[in-house]
């Protein structure tokens, strides 16, 4: 949903389209489809594809001597996939300093707590051992996020991971730190309550 919100704000499709999210036959499904959604470069679905595609794009840009950077966002539960670590190893090998991965590190995934499904800690040490630059920040603090991106762009010889420590559903009491809200839509009453909570 966040990707679709950004694409909408950038004018790729009308705001009314957002109301069709995940409806049968609608443009905006749970996983973006590059053949249907304007502004989407890569269709994804299986976990780990995003960082793998991003590493390939970053390598292509580097070979063309392009100054562009590639950014990819990963959920922390996604880091349980071997494909993520293959991509991380390749990105370090090719010294893809133009690649920045942002990990939404909230400790929860669709099946529950990460540590109960398959632990990923110590995350910082894992990325350091794969020869990545590691930057940590509070994923709810825009100043810290901005500073993390500034640090990432200074990396000259290796990819960077920004570990953004977050709380799932932050600011909405009935959603906060609850795994069941990973893929569940609120009722109309809950939606209004959530908006009220966020707006204060």
TrEMBL record:
Q: Where is the Transketolase N-terminal domain?
A: 11-196
Q: Which UniProt keywords apply?
A: Thiamine pyrophosphate
Q: Which cofactor does it need?
A: thiamine diphosphate
State the source organism's domain of life.
Bacteria
**Claim: DNA-binding is one of the keywords in the record:** no
Pfam families with a match to the protein in the record: Transketolase_N
**InterPro entries, sorted:** THDP-binding, Transketolase_N
Xref: CDD domains: TPP_TK (cd02012)
Q: Which family does it belong to?
A: Belongs to the transketolase family.
Q: What is this protein called?
A: Transketolase
The species this protein belongs to is Clostridium perfringens
């Amino acid at each position: 949903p966040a990707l679709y919100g950004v694409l909408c704000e950038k004018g790729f499709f009308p705001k009314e389209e957002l109301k069709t999210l995940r409806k049968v036959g609608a443009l905006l499904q749970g996983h973006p489809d590059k053949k249907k959604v304007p502004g989407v470069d890569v269709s994804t679905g299986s976990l780990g594809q995003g960082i793998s595609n991003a590493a390939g794009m970053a390598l292509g840009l580097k070979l063309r001597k392009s100054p562009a950077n590639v950014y990819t966002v990963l959920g922390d539960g996604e880091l349980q996939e071997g494909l993520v670590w293959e991509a991380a190893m390749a990105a370090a090998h090719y010294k893809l300093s133009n690649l920045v991965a942002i990990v939404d590190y909230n400790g929860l995934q669709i099946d529950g707590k990460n540590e109960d499904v398959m632990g990923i800690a110590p995350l910082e040490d894992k990325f350091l051992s794969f020869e990545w630059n590691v930057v940590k920040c509070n994923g709810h603090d825009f100043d810290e996020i901005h500073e993390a991106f500034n640090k990432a762009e200074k990396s000259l010889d290796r990819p960077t991971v920004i570990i953004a420590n977050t709380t799932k559903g932050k600011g909405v009491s009935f959603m906060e730190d609850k795994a069941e809200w990973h893929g569940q839509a609120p009722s109309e009453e809950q939606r209004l309550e959530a908006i009220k909570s966020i707006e204060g």
